[in-house]
Amino acid sequence: MAKSLSPREEQHASPDVRLLEEENRRLKERLNSYSIIFERSLDAIVILNKNGEFVDVNEAACKLFEMDKFSLVGRSFSSFLELVPPDILLFQRSMLQKFGSFSDELLIKLPDGKVKHVEFSMKKDVFDEFDLVMMRDVSAHKALERERIIHEFLFRDVFNRAVDSIVIFDEFGRFIDVNPAFSLSLNLEKEKLLNLSFQQFVARECAEEFARLLAEMKEKGTAKGELSLIRPDGTVKMFELTATSNVYSGFYMAIMRDVTERKNMEVKLQKSEERFRAIFEQAHEAILIWDDFGYILNANPAASRTFELPLNLLVRRNLLDFVDYGEEKVKRIFSEFRRKGEIRDELTFHMPNGEDKQLEFTMKKGAIDGYHLTIFRNVSERRKIERELRESEQKFRSIFDHAMDGILLWDREHRIIDANPIACDIFAAAKEQLLGRTVGDCVPDRARRQLNKLLAQCERAGEASGEVEFSDEWKGRVVEFSLKKEVIPGVGMMMLRDVTERKEMELQLRKSDTLNVVGELAAGIAHEIRNPMTALKGFIQLLQGSIDGDYSMYFNVIMSELKRIESIITEFLVLAKPQAVQYKQNDICKIMQDTIDLISAQAMMHNVQIIADFERALPPVYCEPNQLKQVFINILKNAIEVMPKGGDITVRIARAGCHVRISITDQGCGIPKDKIKKLGEPFYTTKERGTGLGLMVSYKIIEEHQGKIDVESEVGVGTTFHITLPIERTEREDDDDD
Description:
Beta-Lactamase
């Protein structure tokens, strides 16, 4: 139990307790006041320990670091300073240690990556072992300051680089700043100009105009006008001026364009207007006058119409605005113009209304008082017509080159000036070989006579047509010609068509018609003759047995001739109606060998030797052997008969793709080439007592076998019959009909 104080002790202790309580109360009030100031301060307040860790922060600090107090307390301050170079941090710590307090700026980086620019003041050991830091976010201020610096830099850059003069002056007209262009215009250094004013350069007649500009600028904030300034050397410079107030630190700014040259040009043009205006104004071609920079100083009404702009707007434009200056052709033209002083060319110009025009122009450097003159002519329509002509020509050329018939164009002397590929093929010559030659020189001699007749007829009547047969060296071709004189002035046209195949088809058709007629005739003749022939043969045989005496020789002759007549009738019947035959696979070499064996006796009687040359392992041929034997006998008999003095007959059989080729060659007198075509026609023969029916039947049989017979012959050397037969027979529609 505590010892209680005596009344006297309580009396002595009571004043001390009261003093302590009073002191404690004052301290609490003071601490509360400090706490209110700490929490409500607009600046961030941070208390750090010796390790640089947050011990306490106010509300402004939480907003600055965008974290609550609980998250900040205990966190290292250096974790926010990763953007500050280490040497800067080291310097700041050393200054704090040396002086006990320090103020500077820092960049802090928040956990979310946001960066803030802060001003700070730091005091060492404010609360025993704790340091006090006060910070203020100046990021917005720094951004504004940076933007102001950029704007000022940009303004200064434009100010110094501007082509036009820029002057900063006060309300009394005194120069505050001028750009290099203004110094150059007045031919004075900037340092000298800054001690002077506008009034010292303004021409007397412009003094009132300058006073008006100042008044208008003070009242409205902006003003426009013209001024003439007199340079120290006495020359006058004329400017277009636009002035604005309070744009630079409360001063005025004037942008001035030197129009001295333009004004002088206007004066000079006015002096020569009487001589030049009539031509200039009335000219049909567009005329522009422009300076070294491309600015148009004057233009005539035709130029206004050409460039689709009123004259007052056209004069303000730059010539380069109407072209693509980046194009190589444009650069080349202007480079050549600067080098030579004049040029004639054409370009595509872009009009303000979006239309493109092809303009032909002539440029002359320094043609009028040192300025350049350009005369334009609109050739858009002409170029359009030329383009259409080119397209039309391309269409004609396409038709000309791809026509199915040959086409030649010739001049009045019949010289070839153009030929399409088909014509070149018909003449068997390249186009370069034909051009420049006369038409007659391109054909053989025999054909030239026929062609010259057609040309003469064309000259008389204006047109002609006909067929020309080329000589043997041209493989006996027939060409159909159609001539037209003066299809265009001075040019004639010749159409050519190779009708050789058509002629051959017509010949085949005629042969076929003849065969039909002969067949019908043969059927009638055979029917009418065979009946009396049967009676004759019967009665002759009866007479032969009943007549005495040695008349056997007469009977033999009569029977022989009757058999010959019967043979001819049989051949007639083959022509009249094909016999019902059965085709099957047969060895063609065996059929030929049997035929040779059959006719060898007759060959030996005429001193003829038959030489067989058969290819081995030939496939069987789908045929009727008896009919083929008849064909082989006919051809071999003819070969024997055309060699009365004897000789060799060579028979070769070889494979030719999907066909078998039989070649029978004799050493007879040969057949002229103009007669070869007639072989196989009814009643055509080269023998004295021949009927021509043998070959006719042979051609018919080979045709029924879907083969063909080709004849090669040379007069005095011999003849070869080539028989080509398919290995496999293909069914035809007429086969089924039969």
